[in-house]
Design a protein that fits this description.
Elements (H helix, E strand, L loop, with lengths): L1 E2 L1 H10 L9 H14 L3 E2 L12 E5 L6 E8 L4 E9 L8 H13 L9
Parallel strand pairs: 1-5
Antiparallel strand pairs: 2-3, 3-4, 4-5
Length: 116
């Protein structure tokens, strides 16, 4: 199972923030694997989430409000966790904070690699 850097960052913000966990990627993979084995998989996006064509939604067993947005990597025959979605009215990190982070990221100029 693959996990994108974006999914790792979202997980740290919403689930393990400040826990000191070193290998968050393996935590995500383990949680998604358990949820898939328990049948918590859907092709329908959670309420309020924008659906992506071909996306797979996996509901966390420990936190049912947390949904992992995944894609199939067909050549490798594996699931890739792309991002996380929090359903409900009481997200762990209020939307105004994540919206502000997104605005800051857009306002930063792209840094070009240095050439020697």
């Amino acid at each position: 199972m693959g996990v994108t850097d974006h999914a790792v960052e979202r997980y740290r913000q919403r689930v393990s923030g400040g826990s000191g966990a070193i290998d968050v990627r393996s935590q995500i993979a383990a949680r998604v694997t358990r949820a898939v084995e328990a049948g918590r998989v859907s092709d329908e996006p959670p309420a309020g989430a924008a659906g992506g064509r071909g996306s797979v939604y996996v509901q966390d067993l420990e936190r049912p409000d947390l949904v992992y947005v995944c894609r199939h990597d067909r050549p490798r025959r594996e699931l890739i966790v792309v991002t996380l979605w929090e359903a409900g009215e009481q997200p762990a990190v209020p939307r105004r904070f994540t919206d502000e982070l997104r605005a800051l990221e857009r306002s930063r100029p792209l840094r070009r690699p240095q050439r020697d």
